[in-house]
Design brief:
Number of helices of chain A: 0
Mean pLDDT of chain A: 94
Shape of chain B: globular
Largest sheet of chain A: 7 strands, mixed
Distance between the termini of chain B: 41 Å
Strand content of chain B: 35-45%
Number of strands of chain A: 11
Strand content of chain A: over 45%
Largest interface: A-B, 25 and 21 residues
Distance between the termini of chain A: 36 Å
Mean pLDDT of chain B: 92
Helix content of chain A: under 10%
Low-confidence stretches of chain B: none
Number of strands of chain B: 11
Structural class of chain A: mainly beta
Low-confidence stretches of chain A: none
Structural class of chain B: mainly beta
Oligomer: heterodimer
Helix content of chain B: under 10%
Order of helices and strands of chain B: EEEEEEEEEEE
């Protein structure tokens, strides 16, 4: 199993550009999550999903959108990139009784 | 509102010394707490969870509801324990939404 994979690993965006961060898991987990981690801070939940077709906001959802059309994929969309969205983004997944498994992260810089 | 506090950003000890990483929480419900660890160039992974009451890599953590704490302890630190440690609280019930502390960077010196 590859576990949780994220692409790209690094990205530099200009202000106002848009992009999609990809997240895929091959463990058939129902629950998936997107976090962001700013320097010196813990992870903050952006959005989460408890199953295909079901998504909900986390603590810091503004400026982001998600969709969950399949169990495996949970992409995160940035529509109008802002410098405040410079961060490291982590995707995670879990079953209802297990721990969260994390991806390797995507480092995004918005200039 | 739920909150997780890790008061130490940095903690440095010598090999063989005891280590304690502090974690305090604020939560109105019944807490479910975790310690996650991130070694250099590796992804974040679970170290232990309080409901399993197990010892992983020599680390233990006891939930103290009276002091609202979940401190991580190891009697004899090893160099390979050097990593970033995050305390986390399940604040979402059956949705398993985690609230993380800011993390403590542990350095174990030879």
């Amino acid at each position: 199993n590859a576990g949780v994979t994220q692409t790209p690993k690094f990205r530099i965006l200009k202000i106002g550009q848009s992009m999609t961060l990809q997240c895929t898991q091959d463990m058939n987990h129902n629950y998936m999550y997107w976090y962001r981690q700013d320097p010196g801070m813990g992870l903050k939940l952006i959005y989460y999903s408890v199953g295909a077709g079901i998504t909900d906001k986390g603590e810091v959802p503004n400026g982001y959108n998600v969709s969950r059309s399949t169990t495996e994929d949970f992409p995160l969309r940035l529509e109008l990139a802002a410098p405040s969205q410079t961060s490291v983004y982590f995707c995670a997944s879990q079953t209802s009784t297990d721990t969260q498994y994390f991806g390797p992260g995507t480092r995004l810089t918005v200039l | 509102a739920q909150r997780v506090t890790q008061p130490e950003k940095l903690l440095s000890v010598f090999k063989g010394a005891p280590v304690e990483l502090k974690c305090n929480y604020s939560y109105s419900g019944s807490p479910e707490l975790f310690w996650y660890v991130q070694y250099s160039r590796q992804r974040l992974q679970l170290l232990l969870r309080h409901i399993s009451r197990e010892s992983i890599k020599g680390f233990t953590a006891d939930l103290n509801k009276g002091e609202t704490s979940f401190h991580l302890k190891k009697p004899f630190a090893q160099e390979e324990d050097s990593a970033m440690y995050y305390c986390a609280l399940n604040s979402g019930g059956s949705n398993y939404k985690l609230t993380f502390g800011k993390g403590t960077l542990l350095t174990v010196n030879p």
